[in-house]
Design a protein that fits this description.
Elements lengths: L3 H36 L6 H13 L7 H25 L5 E5 L5 H10 L4 E5 L2 H7 L7 E8 L3 E2 L1 H9 L3 E9 L3 E4 L10 E4 L1 H6 L1 H4 L5 E4 L3 H11 L4 E5 L1 H6 L3 E4 L9 E8 L10 E7 L6 H11 L4 E8 L7 E8 L5 H12 L3 E8 L2
Parallel strand pairs: 1-2, 1-3, 7-8, 7-9
Antiparallel strand pairs: 3-4, 3-11, 5-11, 6-9, 6-10, 12-14, 12-15, 13-14
Length: 362
């Protein structure tokens, strides 16, 4: 009779072989991840998984083990998918990413939050410059603010999304804490002029009102801080992040001057190609309805018909056509879902203009 020690020894030998084969399998999985990323293919392939399980069950001589083998392969493929996603995410580390502003801006903060500190950030002056820069092969992605919880949509970015043939591949939300900053030695009563982005002025209007301050709009909060630092004038101040104050050696005169303490900005990540993944659950489109009775109503109704949750809708005027609008819609869904396909097909076939902007993780 075989003793327990001998049986365990045989199991150990088999386990060593399993480890070697597992490592070999995962190395091949890494190659699959690279291919899928290059081709924009989703990680999940349900048909392939079903076929693989069925094929390997047929190799099994002891059919009593069928449910166990099936469970084993389900878990193995879950691990493979997780590893593929990890490899795809790692491929984004250390890449070149463009943002509007300068060192210490909220956009740069969002960039590092999303891509990690290994990403190389490239600052540009205007929102449109981010789109233009992505035409450069050296830049992989761009980061742009699109919506603030206090002041609403950033219309220029919506217009640029339609103008350029780029895609939304991700988004993230950043808490915004605005601070009033000036050079060392300056006090609140010394300040006569404040520089910042117009959005920041809106978000801090309660603090700024009735103080007799001259507000000068600048294209970025961090660039405003840079200007104040260079001028070394005690009568000048900027509104921006704590990081902007640190980078420019400015003193924060007043912390957190937002109207709303729950002040958040949503940033979108734009890329050159459409990126798909089985974990994507948000879709963005833009369309224009023909000028006839019920056209817009019918297009919006297709979401309810297909049980799709619309997250937000924004309208922008069609230049040169008074009272006609482009409608930007974000809704929950995956491009491979049949209900999503039906909704998109309907809107595309019943619109005077249509553009698919992206499918990404909400």
């Amino acid at each position: 009779m075989t003793d327990l020690k001998e049986l365990r020894g045989k199991i150990d030998d088999i386990d060593r072989k399993i480890v070697e084969l597992f490592q070999e399998r995962m190395e091949i999985v890494s190659g699959v991840a690279k291919y899928k990323k290059e081709k924009g293919l989703p990680v999940l392939n349900s048909i392939r998984e079903g076929e693989l399980i069925e094929k390997n069950i047929n190799y099994l001589k002891n059919k009593e083990l069928t449910p166990y083998l099936k469970e084993f392969y389900i878990k193995l493929m879950d691990l493979s998918k997780d590893y593929q996603r990890l490899q795809i995410d790692k491929a984004k580390e250390g890449i070149n990413v463009c943002f509007q502003g300068t060192t210490g801006s909220y956009s740069q903060e969002a960039l590092f939050e999303y891509f990690g500190s290994d990403a190389t950030s490239y600052p540009v002056k205007e929102f449109e410059d981010v789109f233009k820069k992505l035409k450069d092969d050296n830049i992989s992605y761009g980061v742009l603010p699109i919506e603030n919880s206090s002041t609403g949509a950033i219309n220029e970015v919506y217009d640029l999304l339609r103008k350029y043939g780029l895609y939304i591949v991700g988004n993230m939300t950043l808490k915004i804490n605005h601070n009033l900053m000036a050079i060392e030695g300056a006090k609140l009563e010394d300040i006569k002029t404040v520089y910042s982005h117009p959005q920041a002025f809106k978000q801090c209007s309660e603090f700024l009102k009735d103080k007799g301050l001259e507000l000068i709009g600048y294209h970025n909060t961090a660039v405003s801080a840079e200007l104040v630092s260079e001028k070394k004038d005690k009568t000048m101040a900027a509104i921006g992040s704590k990081k902007a104050a640190e980078v420019n050696n400015l003193k924060i005169i007043k912390n957190n001057i937002n109207n709303d303490d729950s002040n958040y900005t949503r940033f979108i990540i734009i890329g050159k190609t459409l990126e798909t993944s089985d974990i994507n659950d948000a879709i963005s489109i833009v369309f224009s309805s023909p000028n006839k009775v019920g056209a817009l109503y019918d297009s919006l109704g297709i979401f309810k018909k297909n049980n799709l949750n619309m997250i937000r809708i924004e309208s922008r005027p069609v230049v040169g056509k008074p009272w006609e609008y482009f409608f930007y819609i974000d809704f929950e869904g995956d491009i491979n879902n049949e209900h999503v396909k039906e909704a998109i097909d309907y809107i595309q076939n019943n619109s005077s203009y249509f553009k698919f902007l992206g499918n990404y993780k909400k």
